[in-house]
Amino acid sequence: MTTKISFQGVGRTFPVRDGRERLTALASIDLDVADGELLTVVGPSGCGKSTLLDLLAGLLTPTSGRVLLDGEEVTGPGSDRGVVFQQYALLPWRTAQGNVEFGLEATGVPRKERAELAREYLDLVGLAAFADRYPHELSGGMKQRVAIARSLAHDPEVLLMDEPFAALDAQTRESLQDELRRIWRRTGKTVVFITHGIDEAVYLGQRVAVLTSRPGRVKSVVDIDLDRESTGDVRSTPEFAHYRHKVWTLLHDEVVRARTFKEGSPA
Ligand SMILES: Nc1ncnc2c1ncn2[C@@H]1O[C@H](COP(=O)(O)OP(=O)(O)OP(=O)(O)O)[C@@H](O)[C@H]1O
């Protein structure tokens, strides 16, 4: 298996209290993601999940260690990585089609090709019939589908997703999880998906990386071997419950540790 992404001893600190102190968000993260893998990341609140993704996106630089993409150090954002955040960040004055085309304009894709690509990706996320709708005419789930189509239209090799379904209702979230798995299987992209939801992490991920409480380190990486493509409700199988419990236990220990630490230390 080829390694696509490699975190090598990655740490990140932030200046706090007017620069008088530094807060360690992440410490010595070692993690490899295989080419074409769908990896989910969970961890207690504030453990550095978004920081991890921002480092991979090139929006932040590490204070120690290196982040490699195809063996090359990440030094800034690039079209080889598409990012989808929790907030859809669509332009309200543009239709779904216009929003997907928007990013392609900046990269100089000719008008006709832009329109074709936008249609293709809106079709991929099941929104072909809604291409001419404005964001305010779309549901939350639809808006997030547009955001996914917009990221995919650049044909990035890696899709980085930071709690993209967190703002959606449970039913929409589950249907977008299926949609994402379908898109992932069809496109073969490498996906790193941050979530607060244990069920979501287990349902989506081929592996689930569990981070420790801050400073975030990789506590454990759990291999998930589930048959999601069977017709039944995989979430109610004993196998799903087994993985769910495994991740829950790892995470619960960290949440308790974080609380004990906080109570014992006002800093
Ligand atoms: N720019 C910044 N300046 C100072 N501190 C920061 C900055 N960005 C993040 N932090 C701190 O770093 C830690 C990790 O933040 P981060 O947002 O990565 O965590 P998270 O695991 O994604 O949190 P959550 O689960 O609550 O979304 C937090 O304590 C946060 O307050």
Describe this structure in words.
The protein is an alpha/beta fold. The chain has 2 domains: 31-62 and 76-80 and 160-264, P-loop containing nucleotide triphosphate hydrolases (Rossmann fold, 3-Layer(aba) Sandwich), CATH 3.40.50; 88-155, no CATH class. Helix content is 37%, strand content 25%. The protein is built from 7 helices and 10 strands. The protein has helices at residues 49-57, 96-106, 111-124, 140-152, 170-187, 198-204, 238-264; strands at residues 3-16, 21-34, 38-42, 64-69, 72-73, 81-84, 158-162, 190-194, 207-211, 218-223. The strands form 2 sheets. The protein has a 6-stranded mixed β-sheet, with helices on both faces. Strands 2-1-4-5 form a 4-stranded antiparallel β-sheet, covered by helices on one side. Strand 1 and strand 2 (21-34) form a beta hairpin. Helix 6 (198-204) packs across helix 7 (238-264). It is globular, with a radius of gyration of 19 Å. The model has no long low-confidence stretch (mean pLDDT 91). Bound molecules: adenosine-5'-triphosphate (ATP). Adenosine-5'-triphosphate (ATP) is lined by residues 14, 16, 23, 25, 43, 45-51, 214.
